[in-house]
């Protein structure tokens, strides 16, 4: 009796990243806070070498903790971009001291300038334009300045729900970029729906604002966590994407992933190469490891420093 010869079934090939998404995620950035960075044993296990890492400065965080986090990330080979929130900086001397500390201890040469989420300013500054007007970033050789963008508006600034004031501020910053040597870009609040983001980006270009846009994307997280952060951060109409998902009991307990919004934006970018969204900036609301893993699985990688924008 002949023995039956059973062939071992080949394992299915792993899914390859979508080429458009892979290209869109190149040189993505991610945000950390000192207290969350402390929980990461080794960033090199999570993030590609050369990744730009923003360090969020929350009110009450000592500048020494911010600088220590910047020093660690810089030593590990990352491009460090700390936040400079205008409303928690007391005065000109404080700002210059922060810049000196970052440069002297962590070789920081770039920063995200924003008003900050504080209602009452701690001192002389109310918005990022005032920080820029000090001339301190130019004086100390900062090579790159990013500013905040709000695809769905910002009701803390435009109380009537329009974008008149935030768009006017971006026009001013466009002018600043044209009269200085600073390399500038817009880093935005996160949103969950691609089409309004595309329309907002196009509207800026039509208004003569051609600063590159680094679009904010919320990383994978529990749905309840995302809804909480979205409400706290003033996310507008695209919040309905999460609310609709919350009403579907089959998806309620599943973690949210940004696959749909990233895929749609990537497809638009592939079809329109001059589209002014150039990079993805992740808010790791469900944890840095979870977000970094998702990015790697979808082809995210860091560009070489010479190619960074």
From TrEMBL:
Name the SUPFAM superfamilies on file: FAD-linked oxidoreductase
Keyword Oxidoreductase included in the entry's annotation: yes
Specify the superkingdom: Bacteria
Which UniProt key words apply to this protein? Oxidoreductase
Which molecular function GO terms apply here? oxidoreductase activity
Q: What is this protein called?
A: Methylenetetrahydrofolate reductase
Source organism phylogeny: Bacteria, Pseudomonadati, Pseudomonadota, Alphaproteobacteria, Rhodobacterales
